Amino acid sequence: MAVPRRRRLRRGVKRAAGRIAQQAQPFTWAPVLLALGIAVYFALPAEPAQAAPVLLTLAVAVLAAAAWRTGRAGFRIVCLAAAMVLTGVLAGTLRTQGVGTPVLDRGIGSAEVTGRVLAVSGKGDGGRDMTVVLQVDRIGGLGPGTTPRRLRLAVPARGAGPDLLPGVRVEATARLWPPPPPVAPGAYDFGRRLFFESIGGLGQVRRLSVIAPVDGAGGVGFWASLRAAVAERLRVAIPGSAGGVAVALVTGDRGGIPPENTEHLRAAGLAHLLAISGLHMGLVVGAVFGAVRGTIALIPPLALRLPAKKIAAVAAMVAATAYLGISGASVPTVRAFLMAMLVLSAVLIDRRAISMRTVALAALVILALQPEALLEAGFQMSFAAVVALVAIYERWSARPRGERPRQHGALHRVAAYMAGVAGTSLIAGLATAPFAAFHFDRVAVLGLLANLAAVPVVALLVMPALVAGLLLELGWSAASEFALAAAGWGIDAVLAVAAAVAALPGAEFIVARPPLWALIAVVAGSLVLLLQRGGTRWMGLVPLCAGLAAFATARGPDILVDDIGATIAVRLHEEGDYAMALNRRSTFAAERWLRADGDPRPLEVARTAWEAACGTAVPCVLSSRGGIGIAVLTAASGRSVRGEEAHCALAAIIIAPREGLRCPELPGHAIDRTWLEREGATALTVQGERVHVETVARARGNRPWVPQSPQ
Asked: Which branch of life, at top level (predicted)?
């Protein structure tokens, strides 16, 4: 009986697998498999061997050949899927080896630096520092093998003259330090992002002088000068906060936007308007495409003889390329540019411009060229929104014509447009909400209301007016002034909407950061629902619901210690919220910890809770969740005591960040200076009678973007 039962089970599995494969769209799953390989690469604890690219290439070739020669459809699918995953690992390996910038492993109190300025953000307005990205020629005291390719430097407003422009060569004296590690295990790794921008260190400039003017090498000087000229023109034509937003929309420089405006936009769910991405590129391309095609249509001899649609597509390509150069070619802008090029190319060859295959092709190109983009919130959120919108668009447009609503008159068209804005905002908001919760610990509850009011203003007034104003500057300055002024009025309206919505009760909801597996489950389930056809797509509900349940029950660690032991958070047994001893020089880590725990309280409340529990006592013995005892040998004031043998029996967890702990037999967990120097920021979670320990060093592994401890 067992043999027939196994045969029936085998046949059932084969039928189910065949049905899943039959209802899949293979090409749309290709970027998903490539992304899986990239994720595997970045999850490795250490960098693959130097020979890994050769071995991976051979493995991919063998799998592709096997898929080509086999006559069995199932085996072909398995071979191609494995080849795509290995290609993702290969792409990540090659990209890292191609960047290959050294990373500072220690701070340098005073270094002489020379190099060429690649980018400048901010204008030093209001006493704020400017940020400069420097292509390094030399750093005094460092050899070629330890000198980063680029540095990101903060330049005081008083030390930044008008001649500090991209393309100039400078000489500076600066204090340098390595890129910062994550503030907690699993938190965002800013150092990794900087590494893939070829930035191996940060610094604060003390003295800076320009030693050579813009040389225009490699086109950097041209685009840099153009960006600077455009930014200055916008600041003059559009004063105040609106001018700072206009500069951000065109050049990508957000340094001129007041912090309160940025916070209002974020709380109202309008922060996406500041990042030059698909919306902005689409509006610029659409405005140029529509203007050129409409102009040709108004001239009957040309309209009858010329392919107006294709000419407009070429003009839109030129506009997109110019916008890419002026905006500084950030990663989100490059992503939007590639997507626009694919859509316009489809127009040129008479293919459907908007389809899931176009989205898949764009994702393949971006992930192949910039594998690290997979880990960035911008990539995840933009493609989540696009995939959801295109999937629903394809199903909507596939309906018979008789079922589609008809529009009669201008009023109906306006209503249809507003319904479209509301629908796309709702779909995009739902698609990106899990990523916003995971990366930013917040969800803009009233984002739909804000987008419904602000997006039409940006789409119909702000972006067209900015494009027209800059183009008219070439020969009709009066019209340019009016167009830019109109753009300023529109931006003022958007800022007013953001401030009004942000002031409403419940505009923003702080949520606890879920575990990584929960986000992966939500993504996997959503992809199955959106990319599969037929009944098999409903299988995606299982991981989707499991992931959402984990989102709803997420909670942060019970104990957190930063990498120098200056900030400590303990979840008190009685209250369930963090009490915190704060580093008074920097509260960034503490703020991130509170938000990641879904805690909207001000830091002062958490600090007061610590003082109420400990007072000035050193050592301080606390009781965390589960009744676990913690002894802290440092006070909120910074006063500490030497870890002696008498302290070792105080509690199951000893935190002595200022001194090495001297215990003949260590307690269950001892976090002292030696531990923090080796492991970095540490998180402990109580699990029944056990304590689970995570550290930044273990989470990051031994990778090229992790500074190596100096010997």
From this structure: Bacteria
